[in-house]
Amino acid sequence: MKGSNAPAWMVTFADLALLLMAFFVLMMSFSSVDLAKYRNVSESMSEAFNDALGAFDKPLAGRIGDEKADSDTFNKEAGNAASQIGESEDETRQKMEETFSTLKSVLRKEVTEGKVSVESSGNSVIIRFDDSAYFTAGSEGLSPAMAPVLQRVASVLLESPGTIVVEGHTDSQPISTERFRSNWDLSTARAASVVTELLQFAPIASDRVVVQGHSDTKPVAPNDTAENRAKNRRVEIHIISDNGQTTTLSVPTR
């Protein structure tokens, strides 16, 4: 095969011409983008990212204004909630004061005779009974004198909202009988006796009432004298108000 008579630079020139032609063909194809398809793709991406790109297009001042409005709304709502809480606490305190006044009135005779004391401390009310008058020693049975007192107390509990927790307590002297194996049994049985009596006197919802026996684990005085041990033998009725505060009625027992 005979060699070509064309000069050597023609080969390089031909390669360059082909590259330039390919370049311009590509440029022409890029310039003819389908705008409809591009718009659809752009809208789909915008929706997928929850209009994140649009948020950056919003003026900064506008965004700050919206955030300030949201903050003002939050502060207003928080202030309203705090006000409602304050009103609720005031209402609860008022109800406790009414309970205290009512109990002093309905138990005036027992207070005058020194058999019962009624005290108020903050959001709690305490009624204390003479321990020798309401339970037989070593028994859960209520004495006849207890019935009319509990009847009046039950009428007050019926009008007082909240959970009623009835607790039985004893002194540290151990007990072991055919009926009661220990002070745990005795304290629980006495609390249950009080609840049974209360529910007979007033239609108090049973789901408001809880019975607990604490034996001698929560003394109010040292168990070193007969007088102090008498103070520890008691039944307490706790009225737990809607805001968690407690009204306590203490019934010392034998």
Strand and helix map with partners:
Blueprint: H1 9-30, H2 35-48, H3 52-57, H4 60-106, H5 108-112, E1 116-121, E2 124-129, H6 146-159, E3 163-169, H7 183-201, E4 209-213, H8 226-232, E5 234-240, E6 246-252
Parallel strand pairs: 3-4
Antiparallel strand pairs: 1-2, 3-5, 5-6
Helix pairs in contact: 6-7
The level of helicity is 40-55%
Give the spatial strand order of the biggest sheet. 4-3-5-6
Shape, principal axes of CA atoms: rod-shaped
Number of helices: 8
Strand residue percentage: 5-15%
CATH class of the domain at 91-252: Alpha Beta
Structural class: alpha+beta
Question: What is the CATH-assigned architecture of the domain at 91-252?
Answer: 2-Layer Sandwich
- Give a short account of the largest sheet: 4 strands, mixed
- Average pLDDT rating: 77
Here the CATH topology of the domain at 91-252 equals 60s Ribosomal Protein L30, Chain: A
Radius of gyration: 43 Å
Pattern of helices and strands: HHHHHEEHEHEHEE
Number of E-state strands: 6
Low-pLDDT sequence parts = none
Distance between the termini: 135 Å
CATH superfamily of the domain at 91-252: OmpA-like domain
